[in-house]
Amino acid sequence: MTITAKAPDRIDAILRACRLMLRMNRASPDARKSEVLYYQMLIDYCTQLATARQNGKFIAAHTVFFPSEIFYAMDIVPLHPETTSWMTALFLGQYADLLAAGAEQGLGSEICSPHRGLAGALSIGALPHPNAVLWSNMVCDNTAKCGELLMKITGSPGFLLDRPFQRSEEEMKYFVEELRDMVAFLEAQSGLKMDWGKLSETVHQMDEQIELFREINRLREAVPSPFSPQGFLELVTVDYLFPGRPEATEYLRTLRDELAAAVAEHIGAVPKERYRLMTLFMPPMYLIGFLEKLLREYGAVSTTEPFFCNWGEGRLDPDKPLESVARKSYMLPEAHMFGPMSKKAVGEIVESAKRYKVDGAIYYADVGCRHTCAVIKLFKDALSDVDVPVLTIDCDVVDPTVISEEEIREKLERFFELMDDRR
Questions:
Q1: Mean of the per-residue pLDDT values for the chain?
Q2: Rounded to an integer, what distance in angstroms lies between the CA atom of residue 419 and that of residue 347?
Q3: What gap in Å lies between CA 67 and CA 264, rounded to an integer?
Q4: Which of 165, 83, 149 is nearest to 111 (CA)?
Q5: What angle do CA 320, 322, 327 make, to 5 degrees?
Q6: Nearest CA to 289 among 137, 408, 157?
Q7: To the nearest whole percent, how much of the chain has pLDDT over 90?
Q8: Residue 343's pLDDT band (boundaries 50, 70, 90)?
Q9: In Å, what is the CA distance from 287 to each residue of 259, 282, 363?
Q10: Closest by alpha carbon to 366, among 135, 160, 86?
Q11: CA geometry: angle 51, 95, 309, nearest 5 deg
């Protein structure tokens, strides 16, 4: 075990920040009811983590795009290190010490900063100590390798979930068996048993949630678009942290109804919509508030995020819960990032640009992400064919030393001028 000096637990700090946001939303007459529900979910998630040890709960740390619905069905507390460490940048503006701690673990600057940060957070005790570490090969080589390091840091047992690239019948059978092995591992480590009835209900909830995601996407096609400029980050977080949870279903239903009412009354998210944008990959978390304010200032709104909100086709079957969990992994919006980039995936990006009447695309090129940066020209060329300009912003999801507010403002203002000149 290589855990170093104890640092303040960030979960408690995130919890305080979310409670403040909840109070502010409840006090605002213009706040969305869905936003209130969203912050309440975050509070419940963090509270469960903060109290897990004293309540004798089993904590499972897991990587991004991992089927955490399995944990909920077993009454295991999930810990999503990437998202929780992102929240330190989003809510607290603190991440430098986590990156420094990651560097002490031997992770160089060329490694994805969220992975450096999650390793750093666990090494200094800034996140709760997990009873087990689970990871998969989705969506990149950093994710596929980080679990071994996290096992070493925490001294916890671990399990690698191997998800095949393709979706043939044989590969689906293989992945279902991988999931069975994972359940057996969790039962052995935790002393808990899988509640198959609860997993079936979770799958039922997930199926409804995916349909709600699709309805929300259709409503966002409206002109003007009804969802806030950076509102998609709520959708991403809900999928990452609350798959199959009833509170997530309630949030999505409420948001769907709010957007439907706004569309019926021709009310847009910004007072005067001028620029409809496509967001490619993840903007800097520490600048989300700044970006929201800047986009509102210029009448810009992100209407589509193909790699975060566009779910694949298909439905889930509660009578076949493990098979449905496997199927869902191929329906994830991010599934296109796993394995070779297909012509179908590129074509769907182009179709999204047409369907959402996009004026331009913003490509957040995370300097530590080889997946993101490798396909810049591919996407630019494809969108150029349908006359959609692309602004590439070299940045980092959590490291504020890569780009500043002033630099992003200058780039976006020039991009808005370019789109004006094309009209």
A1: 92
A2: 23
A3: 36
A4: 149
A5: 90
A6: 408
A7: 76
A8: confident
A9: 25, 11, 15
A10: 86
A11: 80
Q: What is the pLDDT of residue 88?
A: 82
Give the DSSP letter of residue 366: E
In order of their start, the domains of the chain are 10-194 (3.40.50.11890), 198-421 (3.40.50.11900)
- Evaluate if pTM is beyond 0.90: yes
Paired tokens of 338:
């796993």
Residue by residue, DSSP assigns 290-332 as HHHHHHHHHTEEEEE-HHHH-PPS----TTSHHHHHHHHHHHS
- pLDDT at residue 3 is higher than 50: no
Chain position carrying tokens 């979960």: 11
Distant-in-sequence, close-in-space partners of 289: CB < 8 Å, separation ≥ 6: none
Query: Where residue 403 falls among pLDDT bands split at 50, 70, 90?
Result: very high
Instruction: Write out the H or E segment, with its range, that includes residue 133.
Output: strand 132-136
Sequence length of the chain is 423
Measured CA to CA, the distance from residue 356 to residue 225 in angstroms comes to 9
Place of tokens 């109070």: 23
Identity of residue 283? P
Q: Give me the amino acid identity at 420.
A: D
Of 12-21, 88-97, 111-120, 390-399, minimum mean pLDDT range: 88-97
CA 278 – CA 39 distance, rounded (Å) = 25
* 104 backbone dihedrals φ, ψ, rounded to 5°: -65, -25
In the structure encoding, which two tokens stand for residue 214, read together? 């699709």
The rounded distance, in Å, linking the Cα atoms of 60 and 253 is 29
Place of tokens 């508030």: 289
H helix count then E strand count, the chain: 18, 8
Residues of the chain by 3-state class (helix, strand, coil), percent to 5: 55, 10, 35
